[in-house]
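can u do me a favor
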């Protein structure tokens, strides 16, 4: 207990666990499953029935490593009774997997919800038609640092939020994702989408967006650098400055959020991206209302894998009726996809021209 009565240890950092978790069936045996999904589920004690990947050798390798079944077909995987279907598939494959699930099934879909807004709308249509209880895996919302930040905001330690700045200057190993190297949309659609989604949860939907997203002459990835301004009217400023090509050593790299309220502020370091997927520790510091200095919040876990625990816990609890709200349901996630779409449209449109000297 220090600054102005602020007790950093009192902030909530984890999601309540389901009392009777259902078996999880994962689609896709790619890097994110071994890096985050399965480590999170083991840590939380969530049962994994098995996984399916059309690359059966890959599926078997991962299944053996984690002691689960490698299903031989989509139909076999989709037939597991009362399962939570966990899609860790590339965005263009989500729709086909969803179509194969039983009507009324519960599904968690990796972000993004399709490659663009048209695919997101198709996914939403499938979920509605099949009455799927489906959410998108925007798990940054559940990272311990973000749960603590939202709790601090809810308890009034920052006052009214008036400023959100995301600043990234780092070197992201895009070569880890083969499917991304030729994708037409990369930086905003695959990476900054996490920040846009979190910002929507904190500040609501912006009125619009100004954005410019571009690649880099040293490689062929479609976009790796973005500047964006989200329009929240005349009180809230919100900006993202993202450079994944800052390959000049660790010293001046950064992956930070600065969030200011009328009475306090928060600083976050998202350590994961500074050495992906191993990561450095996350950091959350708060300058609380009534305080005179920054206070470090001791964090109970990291983005990977702990955010995946909370994400799945909410889906599980919603499925059994222990919780009324499905966070980042496909209905809500569609709006994050619409914001991404608007950012690409803005980037393709000319900026305000500057007058020429008469
Ligand atoms: N922080 C995050 O939230 C985060 C990080 C990385 C990746 N992702 C997302 O996770 C998904 C997978 O990423 P990854 O890094 O594991 O990719 P990856 O390329 O390593 O693996 C994708 C796997 O999906 C399999 N697959 C393709 N179609 C399938 C189908 N119909 N059914 C089952 N499996 C199928 C492929 O054979 C491949 O093994 C992507 O949507 C990506 O955007 C999220």
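np, heres the sequence
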């Amino acid at each position: 207990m220090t600054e102005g009565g602020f007790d950093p240890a009192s902030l909530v950092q984890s999601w309540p666990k389901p009392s009777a978790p259902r078996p999880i069936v994962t689609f896709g045996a790619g890097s994110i499953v071994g890096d985050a999904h399965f480590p999170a589920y083991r840590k939380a004690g969530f049962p994994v029935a098995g996984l399916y990947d059309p690359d059966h050798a890959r599926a078997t390798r991962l299944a053996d490593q984690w002691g689960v079944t490698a299903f031989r077909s989509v139909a076999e995987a989709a037939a597991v009774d009362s399962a939570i279907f966990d899609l860790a598939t590339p965005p263009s494959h989500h729709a086909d997997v969803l179509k194969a699930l039983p009507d009324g099934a519960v599904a968690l879909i990796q972000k993004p919800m399709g490659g663009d807004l048209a695919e997101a709308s198709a996914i939403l249509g499938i979920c509605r038609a099949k009455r799927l209880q489906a959410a998108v895996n925007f798990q940054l919302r559940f990272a311990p640092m973000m749960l603590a930040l939202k709790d601090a905001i809810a308890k009034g330690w920052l006052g009214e939020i008036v400023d959100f700045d995301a600043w990234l200057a780092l070197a992201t190993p895009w070569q880890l994702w083969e499917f991304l190297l030729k994708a037409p949309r990369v930086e905003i659609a695959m990476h900054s989408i996490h920040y846009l989604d979190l910002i929507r949860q904190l500040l609501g939907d912006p009125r619009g967006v100004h954005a410019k997203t571009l690649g880099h002459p040293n490689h062929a990835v479609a976009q790796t650098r973005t500047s964006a301004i989200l329009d929240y009217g005349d009180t809230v400023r919100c900006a993202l400055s993202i450079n994944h090509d800052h390959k000049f050593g660790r010293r001046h790299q950064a992956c930070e959020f600065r969030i200011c309220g009328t009475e306090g502020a928060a600083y976050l370091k998202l350590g994961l991206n500074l050495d992906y997927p191993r990561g450095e520790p996350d950091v959350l510091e708060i300058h609380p209302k009534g305080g005179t200095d920054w206070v470090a919040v001791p964090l109970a876990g990291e983005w990977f894998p702990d955010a995946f625990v909370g994400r799945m816990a909410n889906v599980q609890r919603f499925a059994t009726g222990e919780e009324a709200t499905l966070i980042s349901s496909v209905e809500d996630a569609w709006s994050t996809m619409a914001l991404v779409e608007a950012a690409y449209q803005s980037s393709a449109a000319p900026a305000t021209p500057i007058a020429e000297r008469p």
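Residues 218 and 296 are 38 Å apart (CA to CA). hope that helps!!
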